[in-house]
Amino acid sequence: MTPTTDQPFLFVAFGATGDLMQRKLLPALFRLAERGLVHRSYRILGIGRAKDFDDAAFRKSSAEALKGAGIPAGSPRVREFLAALHYQAVPDFSAASYAKLGERMDALDREAGLESNRIFYLALPPQAFEPTISALGEAGHNRARGFVRLVIEKPFGRDLVSARELNELCHRWFSEQQIYRIDHYLGKETVQNLLVFRFANSLFEPVWSRDRIEQVQITVAEELGVETRAQYYDHAGALRDMVQNHLIQLLTLTAMEPPAKFDAEAIRNEKVKVLRSMEPLREEDVVFGQYAAGVVDATDVRGYLEEEGVAPKSRTETYCALRMSIANWRWQGVPFYLRSGKRMPRRSSQITISFRCPPVAMFQPFGSCAVSPNQLVITVQPDEGFDLHFEVKAPDEPLRMRTERMHFRYHDSFDTLPEAYETLLLDVLQGDPTLFVRADEVEASWELFSPLLEPSKRAIHSYSAGSWGPPAADALPAREGVRWANK
Amino acid sequence: MTPTTDQPFLFVAFGATGDLMQRKLLPALFRLAERGLVHRSYRILGIGRAKDFDDAAFRKSSAEALKGAGIPAGSPRVREFLAALHYQAVPDFSAASYAKLGERMDALDREAGLESNRIFYLALPPQAFEPTISALGEAGHNRARGFVRLVIEKPFGRDLVSARELNELCHRWFSEQQIYRIDHYLGKETVQNLLVFRFANSLFEPVWSRDRIEQVQITVAEELGVETRAQYYDHAGALRDMVQNHLIQLLTLTAMEPPAKFDAEAIRNEKVKVLRSMEPLREEDVVFGQYAAGVVDATDVRGYLEEEGVAPKSRTETYCALRMSIANWRWQGVPFYLRSGKRMPRRSSQITISFRCPPVAMFQPFGSCAVSPNQLVITVQPDEGFDLHFEVKAPDEPLRMRTERMHFRYHDSFDTLPEAYETLLLDVLQGDPTLFVRADEVEASWELFSPLLEPSKRAIHSYSAGSWGPPAADALPAREGVRWANK
User: Among A96, B18, B351, B429, which lies 20 to 30 A Cα-Cα from A152?
Assistant: First the structure.
């Protein structure tokens, strides 16, 4: 079992009444407490602008939030958890407001014996990151007798310049060791398992290179459209919202060299090395798309331009496909095809490793095209697991191949997989930054995508909602005789 | 689909009223005919000593045999099949008897337009092989206008000398291309698939060597005791009955180099090369056992010496374990552990490939013994398939490994697997000798085991029926820190 965090703490949640707090953080915190994984002494201090809100109101809304997450109210454990919740109005970024916050934190410290261990979690819209961090720093909340940690949600910047600025601001007040940049994909069990899968299994590492691998595909497909997020999304697009963070994390974990140790710095060093080895993206290696009206799951859905909150002539991409290359000893010449889109036929996050064909001369009596390449499919969601597609002889037929699969599903072996946020929050509480994005990593990723961020330069291809993206995206791998994996 | 054999034929079955014919050959021949895989014009001529037997009696007993194999009598297809059965008494090895046989074959040829294509199948006890082959040859039945093929059941000799003599006799009358030495293990789907698995999958061949494989185990365990076969078995023993043929076939298919082509000669050349590369067996690399009374499947069973037909002080082994080595570039230093026994806890034929542990320094924070080696388990029977044991991260635990498996079962993907005898008989009809043992192969195998065949030199260890063999057999791999796989 995971060791219980051995220090008491105060969890200070900015954006306490927001969607992320209600849907993800509160249920995750409750489940960690319920499973006895956190120190008995803890308090959660919700921060919001609303002055007409208080502890009681916060507890009431939080009870609703837990209920919404399938945690029924009324049990002793839920009551105990709710009793640990408090609310503090911080209506502006003034010194006075942040001084008051300080007094409240000190009071809770004393009351509950929290040893001044503090986690500031910014569950805020991106434009609030900068003033909040500044105000925390200027009020001296970056230091305490205990530990102080700062957790920042995505997006971390919207290009290289803004990411650098945000890093500089963070570093003005906090050391890199105190900063936890969230990419919730890193909390997913299958993603964490990528490194174990690669390096604890002697069967895979020897074939994990250009010598044996033909091409790699990373797909993060959403069935949903822009939903209620148009205000943010229309200024972001698929490249910023998904590719620069989630897909790049999957890519670096797939491609990285074995770290010297399984510790945060060693692993993140190797991830940064991958990013620094990537060849610059060329225009012809990227295809942008935007969904038009179509049919998803047998339901008519409107196009992106008809969505509420989207600019009438928006050129924001809801789909992005890329061909990327890593210029190092392991990967030179192996294309990495990445794609992510909204309004795809189904929700699916997968990494597909296609191995080279065996020498076929041996099988020529049976037709050379009879042999399909082996594929390893790592499913991140839904139905997490591994599939290994391999060739078997079809019974009864002299030597005709058929592609079959060996498979492993987490849900067949483990009752429950922890939610990504449970994993990540526990890591924050334990002070383990392995699954968080380091400053140089986030900058290296933005640097890679810098040439693609200017919308005026892009062609945007339309695709029907419910399709796998624009035809131009098929042409991208087709240049090398490759097809997208799950079409 | 498999092409239908394109030539009519006469199948001449010596031992027509015997167990093998009734239980295996007749059902297999019927199923091939039922599935339309054989030429429409065929006849089956059963040969026996009994003179008071005729076509009608043979058809009647064959109908019973089919019923016993789950093929109900009375359908048009069964009637059609039975009508193709004939019986010829061949009471002795005289020229007269074999001349009469020739007349009968000629008559059936004319009647049914069989173009003098003939298969002689010797479903006989081993002592009858030699006189039957001689009589066939002296009567000139080794030649015909059409093809003539000779199928010989196991055991092919009982040591190197007798195997050579039998080969010489065969070759006096038949060319090697006409001779089909049966090892019914080679007809099993999983065994045939070994070569496809190895050479049509680019994932496995690169790791299939001493660089990546720690040790290989081949187990053929039977739950049954000697049953009604004591008369034969007590003069044979496990080494002759199972190891020298079936286990060695599994070993050579596992260890062989890729053949230049998937054809009979190329594949059998590579198998012989493995046998010729094997290091001589030393006394300390072999453990013999004999079952004592015990409990199998919750039933008390008697010991081997109490079995009917077994000599009172028999020193025949019912269990044999070996450590073998292949002195070539691929396998030098990789032990191959083989074992076979009667009265084991369950029926199981498996090949277990254990890969080397990954370098563990990386995982030291979690304890070096946390990583188990990958294993590939190929199940030949029952429940044919592949299991790949690999390490995953246990959810919720920082980086603790757990061994899980990916698996593939033939029965999940294919409705029915053909019986080994269906496969082998079809190959004989089609003239494909790939799955039959070549003269030099059988001799190389006997040569290897020659030093072990003298019973007086052996220690025989007792083991309880229902156990996995004598403790001395555990000590064999334990010398290298290895344990038998399915204990």
Answer: A96
